[in-house]
Amino acid sequence: MSDTVTDVIVLGGGVIGLTAAVRLQQRGARVTVWTAHDPEEIVSAVAAAVWYPSHTDADPRVLRWAAATLAEFRRQAAAGVPGVLMRETRMLLRTPVPAVPWWAAAAGDVRLVAGVEPDVRELHFTAPLAEMGPYLAELRRRITEAGGRVVRRRAAGLGEPLAEAPVLVNATGLAAGALAGDPAVFPARGHVVLVDNPGLDVSVRDEENPAGVTYVHPRRTDVVLGGSYDVGRTDTAPDPVEGAAIVRRCAGLVPELAGARVRAERIGLRPARHGGPRVAAQAAPGGGRIVHAYGHGGAGMTLSWGCADEVAELALGPDRAT
Ligand SMILES: Cc1cc2nc3c(=O)[nH]c(=O)nc-3n(C[C@H](O)[C@H](O)[C@H](O)COP(=O)(O)OP(=O)(O)OC[C@H]3O[C@@H](n4cnc5c(N)ncnc54)[C@H](O)[C@@H]3O)c2cc1C
Questions:
Q1: CA 96 – ligand 1 centroid, Å
Q2: Which pLDDT belongs to residue 322?
Q3: Nearby residues of 229 by Cβ (< 8 Å), 6 or more positions away
Q4: DSSP-derived secondary structure letter, 16
Q5: Which of 15, 188, 282, 316 has its CB surrounded by the most CB atoms within 10 Å?
Q6: When comparing pLDDT for 282 and 4, which is higher?
Q7: Which of 22, 34, 35, 204 to mutate to test the pocket of ligand 1 (most atoms within 8 A of CB)?
């Protein structure tokens, strides 16, 4: 690598940027992460952060990234990495399906079984869940422990970091639309409600609920209730009517939730992209290399480690150690 203090600047301190930074460091690069926001202000902090390739196309790249991410989270859960849990999952299927879905190849243990409700079958599988507060803090800790830096700094454009390092990873989520001049990026607003956990430890998803997408993801002391997926909607203020409807749908799905104390509501804008995530290298006009890594929509946690492997390869070349 060059003899500058920083080999790679990662623009973006969300799950995509931080995971990429860890992988780049493991490959020997000296990394600095720039983030325009504090950790709790970003969409990665809002995520239910359960492994599931939500709103993604049946794309071989997605399958590869999702499988690699699942394997890494399984390893982390077994190693006791802060915030990482494994959850048995029941997913209701309201429309008949001939077989397990395309993404089952990445999930490994997916079983199609008769459901509790008549005419509703269920998929059962085990999925990782990341409690994003402690998990993102752990990623930042790993980066600094390995000699990297995470700094609060907003770039006015992609040229600014490239003036300070030969390689830039553009992991700016929704902001990448403007920064990279990519009209395919769009927001998909999501709303979750956090309630006290009455003793649940199984995730339940009812994505085809006619009243709206519904999911229940128990964490250690609270439960994430969702949800919504509103393309193009950008308001992020609390919406009590929508929040109450989410709680009602979730209690209909999991009756133990009735009366659970509401802790908080969270709303975030998923960085979605027509055509799926952009993970690709580009020669910068003034010299240097840009590796784009954005547009992960509703699946940033799900694809994070697989994408980080690819980002490291695009930034540093093939890993000769593997
Ligand atoms: C309600 C909800 C539920 C979700 N549930 C799940 C789930 O269960 N599973 C899952 O996999 N995904 C889920 N997601 C999606 C997930 O949150 C996103 O895919 C993921 O967080 C995107 O991460 P990111 O790092 O690309 O973006 P972000 O977290 O938005 O991070 C972008 C970073 O770029 C920085 N940045 C932007 N512009 C600049 C600039 N000019 N200079 C410097 N820094 C800049 C920001 O400050 C920030 O640090 C959910 C999302 C929502 C809203």
A1: 33
A2: 55
A3: 55, 188, 189, 190, 213, 270, 298
A4: H
A5: 15
A6: 282
A7: 35
Higher pLDDT: 303 or 321? It is 303
Instruction: Output the average pLDDT for the chain.
Output: 95
CA dihedral for 51, 56, 60, 61, sign (positive or negative): negative
* Other residues' Cβ atoms within 10 Å of the Cβ of residue 138: 18
Q: Whose CA is nearest to atom 4 of ligand 1?
A: 47
pLDDT for position 320: 66
Q: What per-residue confidence (pLDDT) applies to 283? A: 95
Of the two residues 183 and 117, the one the predictor is more confident about is 183
Q: Which residue has the tokens 């990341």?
A: 130
φ/ψ of residue 180, rounded to 5: -100, 0
Q: 């999702």: which residue's tokens?
A: 66
Nearest CA to 14 out of 49, 43, 54 is that of: 43
3-state class (DSSP) for residue 61: helix
Residue 277 vs residues 58, 107, 306: alpha-carbon distances, Å: 13, 20, 12
What is this structure's pTM?
0.97
Q: Report whether pLDDT(60) > 50.
A: yes
Q: How far is the CA of 190 from the centre of ligand 1 (A)?
A: 12
pLDDT of residue 96: 83
Predicted pLDDT of residue 32? 98
pLDDT of 1 > 50? The answer is no
Q: How many residues are present in the chain? A: 322
Could you tell me the distance, in angstroms and rounded to a whole number, from the CA of residue 112 to the centre of ligand 1? 31
Rg (CA), the chain: 20
Q: In sequence order, what are the residues at sequence separation of 6 or more whose Cβ sits closer than 8 angstroms to the Cβ of residue 312?
A: 20, 23, 24, 26, 27, 29, 319
Single-letter residue type at 303: L
DSSP-assigned letters across all residues of 83-144: TEEEEEEEEEE-S--SS--TTHHHHS--EEEE-SSTT-EEEEEEEEEE-HHHHHHHHHHHHH
| Nearest residue to 287 via CA among 162, 190, 193, 171 | 162
Calculate how far, in angstroms, residue 170's C-alpha sits from the geometric centre of ligand 1. 13
